[in-house]
Design brief:
Helix content: 10-25%
Radius of gyration: 15 Å
Structural class: alpha/beta
Strand content: 15-25%
Distance between the termini: 35 Å
Number of strands: 7
Oligomer: single chain
């Protein structure tokens, strides 16, 4: 298994490396005592002016991939580890005054999450927009539903893929 957590250790979530369900029959397991609403990486974003807010642990890893490959030292990745949660109120000041792009999943839960999070972030003065994966496909024609799926697009298609030309123009 691999785990997602940050320096606050307020939330920790486990997943299997092979992507198969855990013994409990779920794809991810939030450990006992975790605060599921805590955004992983919010405090680590520090003074970075731009945040990539993603849904889930695999998308957090993909955000690091794109940020590093684009040489964007001004962008910090932050993850909410579930589409159904609101951002923890104690974390909201970490987003104040920053540019935040939401990369939610291309499904009904992701759409609701993006709207909910955008509303919360706007209340603290963040400049918010969202990237939509709806209608995008990977090299094999399968849907590109999230940032993790986008990481599997072939290098020959990267220049034409709208998300990857630059995470933030």
């Amino acid at each position: 298994s691999w785990f997602v957590l940050d320096s606050t250790r307020r939330v920790a979530q486990a997943r299997r490396v092979d992507g198969q369900p855990l013994a409990q029959g779920v794809k991810a397991w939030t450990l006992k005592g975790s605060q599921a609403r805590w955004p992983v990486g919010a405090l680590e974003s520090g003074t970075k002016p731009v945040l990539a807010l993603v849904e889930g642990g695999p998308d957090l890893l993909s955000a690091f991939h794109f940020i590093l490959s684009e040489g964007r030292a001004d962008v910090a990745p932050v993850a909410i580890l579930g589409a159904e949660v609101r951002i923890h109120p104690e974390a909201l000041p970490s987003f104040a005054g920053k540019r935040v792009r939401i990369f939610a999943h291309a499904d009904a839960a992701g759409d609701r999450a993006a709207q909910r999070w955008a509303g919360q972030l706007a209340e603290v003065g963040a400049d918010v927009d969202a990237f939509s994966f709806h209608g995008l496909t990977s090299d094999d024609g399968s849907p590109t539903n999230d940032l993790n799926d986008a990481a599997r697009i072939g290098a020959d298609r990267l220049p034409s893929f709208p998300c990857l030309q630059a995470i933030f123009p």
